[in-house]
Task: structure prediction
Amino acid sequence: MDFAHPEYLVTTDWLAEHLDDPEVVVLDVTAKLTSRLDNGPARELWAGAHVPGSEFFDVASAKGALSDPDAALPWMWPTPEQFAATMTAHGVGGDSRVVLVARTPRPGVDSGTMWCTRAWWTMHHFGVNCAVLEGGIEQWAAEGRRLATGTLSEPVAPPTELRLSTEWARGRASRDDVLAAVEAGGSGACVIDSLSVESFEGRQVDYARPGHIAGAVNVPGTRFIEHETCGFVDADTMYRALHEVGVFDAPAAITYCGGAIAATIDAFCLALLGHERVSVYDGSLMEWTADPDLPMINPSATG
Result:
């Protein structure tokens, strides 16, 4: 089968041919987070070698470019006003075609894939015409394509005003949306845990309570990646992984992880396949596990 929306991905050939297009804006969302959730080290990586003309776009910091600085948790969606101001500051307007690129500095830690899909998920739902570079900067470099160094001048103001989608919030799920899905059981939205099997089964504890949201199914985002960064599997493999847990039989899908980053990999793949009713739980396990009244299942519990 083919992707329903292949335009959500671009190849290195396409990007090389369009680097000089004034409407193309290349944003580098590489992450190399410190223990304080600061992404400063990634900016140094960008300065050392980046796709020519690309701009460092700090999505990964706790209160990064696509996060609400006033929210209690990190990486929560910005308001429309905050989002519009950020896009304008980075030269993105109504006629822009944004290409999101990244590398994975530390495999298994700094997934370039999940930061590309997180940026895409937010920007796409706010109405930005955006795509992810297949294979990431690693593939670009492996093909012998030129990498630039140093810093760039300030982004040029976009010639056209960004037109925000009035339906931007459909890409984001709240705690109450997830709770409604849990209470509805099989007739509600399919809740997908995008974390590892070890986390899902409670054998790896990274949050306040181990295990997974009651009723959730487990489809780790890593199942959709052949290699970092953004080396996605083919459409048939994606479809099978999601079909086997009943995603396409449910009226909607909600994905979650720890902080709503890895969950966007599953959501992005569903979008590639043409699923129209997908949202990402914004608070994810950071919010859910902090409330002891919210239902969770820990398969590893004994006694």
